[in-house]
Amino acid sequence: MRVLKIGDRGIDVQYLSLALRRAGFDTGGIKDEFDEGVHNALVAFQNNVGITADGIAGEMTYERLMPYLRGYDVIVIENGDTVESIAQRTGTTVDAIRIANPMLESFIPGAVINVPFGFDVVPTDVDWSHELTTYVIEGLKARYPFISTASAGESVMDNELWTLSIGSGIKRVFYNGSHHANEWITTPVLLKFAEDYLKALTLGEQLEGRNPSELYSTKTLVIMPLVNPDGVDLVTGAIPTDSQYYITARNIGAAYSSIPFPSGWKANIVGTDLNLNYPASWETAREIKANQGFTSPAPRDFVGSSPLSALESRIVYNYTLNNDFALTVSMHTQGNVIYWKYLDFMPPRSEEIGRELARVSGYSLEDTPYASSFAGYKDWFISYYNRPGYTIEIGRGTNPLPISDFDTVYPPNRRLLTEALYLA
Ligand SMILES: [Zn+2]
What we know:
Helix content: 40-55%
CATH topology of the largest domain: Aminopeptidase
Strand order of the largest sheet: 3-4-6-5-7-10-8-9
Radius of gyration: 22 Å
Bound molecules: zinc ion
Oligomer: single chain
């Protein structure tokens, strides 16, 4: 993160205020601007941890604050420590420490353990970025070491396409988010679902009326929360405006005056719409989009130079081929709609499961509009496997849906994602 001081603006100021709040130093809300509230909270934090209280967030400050973004701290056990005393000192529970350290039997001084803090890892009131996704994935892995996390590949800007796998079941289920840059609210929705599932599983609680242990033993859920990390970073301001990628994207956007920049950006960072780049009637998609004026890299609707010409869609495609998924859900925004069909394909149980997903979420189950019926991930998945694949258009409003919509958007999708896993 950048060195930050009073007057600075940006998504990293949001993360700074988040970390300070989690550390117990309230900035007066999540801020885009480093104002007096952030400054005062930072000085208090610096005093508290015994570093120079200059009110500037630099290397030393970040070193101390980073655990609050990842949601856990690494602690060296000292003489006389017990799991109870550590839980009390760090504001967490004995259970959380035991789950994060399954091999821990006795407390040997000098041993290093992960101690989860008493708050959730996935924040629901800040804008999203690849960097934050990385912290959250690390944080979930530290809290729940039995999950697997991995990178399926790297984006144009060398950002990982993270995956997170939960479960030991034979049947594999795939949830992906943020194919489209300005639909990034789907990333925290999927990550929060992962966290809720893991909490229910480890605490022995129900998840939307389903038994998480049963889900865990019968299904392997693979989540790729951020398919288009560079595009999301462009939309949320995580890419510096003087960087070459930003400048190139802005130049691409300048030719489309009706599409606001960067908030109207859906494509990957070099202007291919990833969800129009899969090998499922791609030529038809190309013709439709060419007629709409999209024939070269654009903020949206450019299908690419050939199927799978974009790095990120190629990664998702290969990853899918290697995983033999029984069912897939791709999260988009917006409209409160579930799309389940591709051409005349009607995979076994697809309509029936779709109806159930519609019932639990209150969303409507619909046929895909003709102009967006081709070359999407769902379209390819359905036609290649003849298995259920869904596109869920979550929420209502203008993209990008603000993070303040999270609490409205999340509950129906928590039900939907639980049920899709159960029914797969
Ligand atoms: Zn979309």
